[in-house]
From TrEMBL, chains A, B, C:
Signal peptide: none annotated. SUPFAM superfamilies: YjbQ-like (SSF111038). This is Secondary thiamine-phosphate synthase enzyme. Belongs to the UPF0047 family. Gene3D superfamilies: YjbQ-like.
Length: 135, 135, 135
């Protein structure tokens, strides 16, 4: 058994955006020779998350962000949290801050259309994604 | 340490449906002698997910599908993704494509009322669930 | 490789509430000398979940519970599940019953503002959280 960690910094450029990190994660797997095992990704924050979704057509992410704002509007009169970002906290929890994925042949085993995204709901910021590999 | 994988094919018969796979996953655990450890399940797709929920009363899944369609309607004028299935992408991300579960005595350690479901939002299709076992 | 388990009982005092368990999980990690590896947490139920979110300002959880009730109201005429708690089942699945987190130095590696919460949607109850540690 071996357990190793690596911190990835991700820059998000807008208030609400999805930033794909698939290629960067695969590069880290190759560089660190993390060949086969389970990779845990943790966004060490409470207003962004991690998700798998389509990375072929950017319109998918655009539609998702539009639908999310309609379902969970940024502004809500009854909110009491002084920072005014409770919507971002809820969106983050719906997507989840943590993701565990299978790795084989030095690479994430995703489907053809799937990519790993940092889901930013309170940017722009520099976000830390902790990668932990157990094999 | 051992890391092993197995691909499970699941047929979904409707556009929106939950297909329970608990018994099939437990059968695979027994056949492959995956006795004790962590099992990762990954739906290698972007319009279906995986979830734990009640498997005793089928009305629960029916209520969930009805509520989901009201919250995240299939049709939305502003959507730009040409395939017209952005709602399915959002539902899939809310449930998540990946699930990690404890295994002991050759069996998933779920609660009495819980089952593992593939949550289909853009079927009918044949879906691949990648099972990865670390022990 | 070692795989070990521990059951944590959590009392939830209201119908809808978030109960933070970060300190208790860290105490278990220290007592059992689970130093470094991956910790899986599973709520063995179908009307509560687990999530990471802000633990500094209690107003965040209050805002989340208020927004959730507006999005997924407890009562819905079309629901068929006789127990009348389909809303709780949906909320639980959105948050997810399972969480896998990295452990280093006998402690969960969360961000400064993040805590682990049991998300109760059909309390008050005593909930079982199964902790499984792989290292």
């Amino acid at each position: 058994m071996a357990y190793q960690e690596f911190k990835l910094q991700v820059l998000t450029r807008e208030k609400g955006c999805f930033v794909e990190i698939t290629a960067e994660v695969n590069r880290i797997l190759r560089e660190r020779r993390w060949t086969k095992g389970l990779l845990n990704l943790l966004a060490t924050h409470t207003t962004c998350g991690l998700t798998l979704n389509e990375h072929a057509d950017p319109a998918v992410v655009k539609d998702l962000l539009g639908r999310l704002e309609e379902m969970i509007p940024t502004s809500r009169g009854a909110d009491q949290h002084a920072e005014g970002n409770s919507a971002a906290h809820l969106k983050a929890s719906f997507f989840g801050a943590s993701l565990t994925l299978p790795v084989s042949n030095n690479s994430l085993e995703l489907g053809t259309w799937a990519g790993v995204f940092v889901t930013e709901f309170d940017g722009p910021r520099t976000r830390t994604i902790l990668l932990s590999f157990l094999h």
